[in-house]
Here is the input.
Amino acid sequence: MPRVSVRKATRKDSASFLRLVLALAKFESLEPPGAAAKRRLVEDVFAKKRINLLIAESDRAAVGYALYYFSYSSFLARPTLYLEDLFVLESARGQGVGKSLFLKCVKEAVAAGCGRMEWAVLKWNERAIGFYEGMGAKRLDEWHFYRLDSETLRRLTSR
Here is the structure.
């Protein structure tokens, strides 16, 4: 089995990271980010430091990533690590890459004094659901997630 390493990304990882994001979009049957969105994504990670990026490598090639940021729980009075993306190329699945990325995020949460770690999983992604539940995660059934898209945001502010 190939050796897997997980590390904080550097700007030199930008091209590899964007290739992985495109692979995730394909996996989820979503529209990939356009050129402007790719530029913003790289700037938000490396210049503005709005989000954090971990890269997983196998045989010195990027095969996965975890993208996360911190929110805050007023009831716990502690930060929450929110895992936005955890993705592993299909060719590298089953080799411990996802587990290595996930556990690195857990360590980041503990180091930051987080009271919890949260993420969302697509309902059809049974493999991911099984993985997370196998790690001890509990599905939150009492919450509904809502979203305002950019068009709605603009419409609401133009009133």
